[in-house]
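Blinded run. Sample ID left blank on purpose so nobody reads anything into the name before looking at the predicted structure. Input follows.
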Amino acid sequence: MQEARTASKETWVFVTGSLARESLEQVLESTKLPVKYRVAEMPITVAALITTRFLVRSLRCAVGESVLLPGLCKVDLEGASSQLGVPVQTGPKDLRDLPVHFGQRPPGEDYGAYDLQILAEINDAPELSVEQILEAAERYRRCGADIIDIGCTPGRTFDAIGAVIHALKERGFKLSVDTFNREEILRADEAGVDYVLSLNSSNMDLAGRIRAVPVILPEAGEGVDSLAANAERARDAGASKIILDPVLEPIHFGLAAALRRYVETRERFPDDEILMGVGNLTELTEADSTGVNAVFLGLMSELHIRYVLTTEVANWARGSVRELDEGRRIMYYARKHKAIPKGINVALLTVRDRNARYASEGELSSMQRKIRDLNFRIDTDGRHIYVFNRDVFVKGTNIRELYTRLGVDDDASHSFYLGRELMKAQICLRLGKKYHQGEPLDWGYLTYPEDEDPERHRRRPRQRKGKTDS
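Blinded prediction complete.
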């Protein structure tokens, strides 16, 4: 969606079809938009069907006006602007979102910056071929990872670790190795690895021998005093730069104490880098990772933690790298502008929508009375699904039962289209999402375009005349 300009001397022309004019005027009358405007009803029932040629032929504009089309219009904006002599752009898909379009400011030009480095772990790397490791590393890099972490397998020495690091370095990767094995650490360091996860008393003597930046852990089961002691040992051994990891524990196995350790570590070491491994939460909590990552990104932002380690082993944690990449930008922007992380970006709203504004049954019934064709319209009011055309107006929650009441013939293509759209409407009903006919559902960063052009199904095949149902 393009940002709406709000210059005081500018008049906006809201283009609509005959079916939606009444609803549009109700929204405009109930909302104090910060712009001058007029409504231009086109000689067509559904504005989404307006073409560039039709718009240019039907609309007349004056100097100083700007045209706002419904979001579902497929008009050539540049061509229409040139021919009409005024700016033309599309607005929201749902006219009830017009107040947000004109009132809620989007993030500024500085959005997108971050200060958190993402380490994406390739688990059990010794079990994989070099080609498989390269493929995983490239995928993580596309998702936003800054550092590829080579996860070694306890009890097995990774003999090929040097060759793997050389292959990854040739492709420009920044790397870490996740192991306590002394031989693996030394081989990885010789090959040019950038970070070593991790050092404690069992291998602390390596701190002064390796070039890579070591991540320092406390002793198992111990607190910040142990972490501080190991950090001092690492520096005494010659490590010029270290990263502290107080260790995030799973729920019911020390999570609350771990959170206290992170806060205390930041208080005691205000200038040191800290790493948080969120995999113990995302992998070991059977819940979608999106919300878990969002909450812990907020904690990292507050504590100025600049390194995060994640994995994508559990199916419910797939996408964690991308979630961290999207979320770090949101949190950085919110912190910079001293704001809560709300109203900035919807990338992490993968299940529910930010806003779900519905038409009422009365509005849909009023729209149905103006229809003069047999094309089916589908909508929801948040509780029911409605399907209607000139002759039919049905509502319900069971899409199988709804379909049988439409009186359609056996045209396979149209039946497929109706079945798909009804299923999408039912999903929206279940999740509290807003349904837009012919448009893909909004899954945040997981949204993808549908592979079919909904315009192909605008023209209805033959239909048996059905009974209007209210």
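Unblinding after everyone has recorded impressions. Residues 117-336 form a domain with the TIM Barrel fold (CATH 3.20.20.20).
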